[in-house]
Structure formats: C-alpha cells, structure tokens
C-alpha cells in the first residue's frame, strides 16, 4: 500500500493572454480565471493510478486563500479522497516557505497516523516558473527526489520514475518515502464525472494555519517575452493565385507531385 500526497497551486489560466500585476511580481488572473497547471493535473492522475494499484489513498494539498479550495475539489472529483488547505496569502510565500509548509503537513499527518509515502508536485509553477519546491521539500523531509518524471509506479517499497532525458528515457528507482516532480505528457488527466463532482463537494477540507512566517521569494520582477513577429505575404488575387497557393502547400509538405 502506498499513500500519495499531491501538492497543487491555484494559478491563472494560461490559455488566455498573460498579463502581469502592476508590481510585476505575479501573473494577473483576474480576467483569465484560475486553474491548476497541466503538470499538476498529470500528478493527480498518477496519484490516483498509483493508489488504485497499491490499495493506498490519494490526498491533495494547497497553500492559498479560500478560493483555492476550488482546485482541491477538482482533484477530489477525479479520485483524491482527502484535501488540506494551508490558509495563507500565496503571493507572500517563496519556494523555501512553501516547501517548509508542505513538510510541516507531511510530518503532522505522519504523527497522527497518516503517512504520505510519496509526495508528487508539478515540475514547476505555472505562474512564476519556480522549479525549487520539490527539491527543497525533499531536503526538508530527508527523502530522495526525482525531478521531471512523466510516469511513476510503485512496487515493493520502491518508486520507479521515468524521465525524458536528452538521450532518451531515463529510469530511476528510489526507495519510499520519496518526492517526485511531474511533467505533463506522460498520462492523460481524466475529466471529473457528475458523481465525482457531487462526492467532492461532501469532502471536509482540512484547514490549517501556516507553521511559520514567510520570508518571501526575493523576486525582483517577472518579465514577458516580446511578442512573436508575424509576416504576411499576399500570394495574389482570384484564380491567378492558385499556382502560388499550390507552391506554398508543397513547401509545407501538405501536397506532393
């Protein structure tokens, strides 16, 4: 049996135009809506698969305000069975602060009799781009860590993580308990069913206060990349443009003679 904890973050929906806050410290999601990142959606799916295969339980955790319960219930609707909210202003917390708060939850749950054998996180934060939390958490807990895995499985007290490296797929085997950060693409996240959503609404979310005061991220500012330039070429007008269109389609590999 392996119990899995997935750490998620409420982030602006990246499918819309990215706009920064006035102080350039975060992505402004007021007009785009909020979600969890694709990395974390895959982490939730892997947690559900691992616990189904081992007879364990999948739990989900987030640090944020009351609105972040929406992301917790999204995970509950697809198979997680417990949820924890660390109530805090997420913008005041840097990677080291977040890692410390997650570690405090893991340790408190273990002391209460619920051990999280495997902790999954997204490979990086979808809004700020931080890659640090998984590694910092592993150091806080004294656990081995694998970064950037697309697939994980658990057997005989060992987690096997598959990572796409520069020379192909790399396979890592580390003993439980462990920490693994997940990249999207290895699994297809499932959509919540109506019964799943109804069940998720009935789950009582554990609410906690932070274990310590945050020190902050020491971030100077976020910047947006310049817009990608686009070129438009007029191929012609009317039937006379047909040969030029055919030439373009051949260059793209859509047509062949």
Brief summary of the model shown:
The chain is α/β, with parallel strands linked by helices.
Question: Could you explain how this protein is built, in words?
Answer:
The protein has helices at 38-54, 69-76, 95-111, 133-141, 194-202, 242-251, and strands spanning 4-7, 11-12, 34-35, 58-64, 82-87, 118-122, 145-155, 158-165, 168-175, 178-182, 206-208. The protein contains six helices and eleven strands. The relative contact order is 0.18. The protein is an alpha/beta fold and 257 residues long.
Keywords:
nine-stranded mixed beta sheet, 257 residues, globular, Rossmann fold, alpha/beta, two-stranded antiparallel ribbon
Mean pLDDT: 88
Q: Return residue spans where pLDDT drops below 50 for at least 5 consecutive residues.
A: none
Strand ordering within the main sheet:
9-8-7-10-6-1-4-5-11
Indicate the CATH class: Alpha Beta
| CATH homologous superfamily descriptor | HUPs
Number of domains: 1
At the third CATH level, what is the topology name? Answer: Rossmann fold
- The CATH architecture designation is 3-Layer(aba) Sandwich
Could you tell me the radius of gyration in angstroms?
22 Å
Beta-strand fraction estimate: 15-25%
- The run of helices and strands is EEEHEHEHEHEEEEHEH
Largest sheet: 9 strands, mixed
Task: Supply the number of helical segments.
Answer: 6
C-alpha termini separation: 59 Å
Q: What helical percentage do the residues reach? A: 25-40%
Structural class: alpha/beta
What's the total number of strands? 11
Give the overall shape, derived from the CA principal axes. Answer: globular
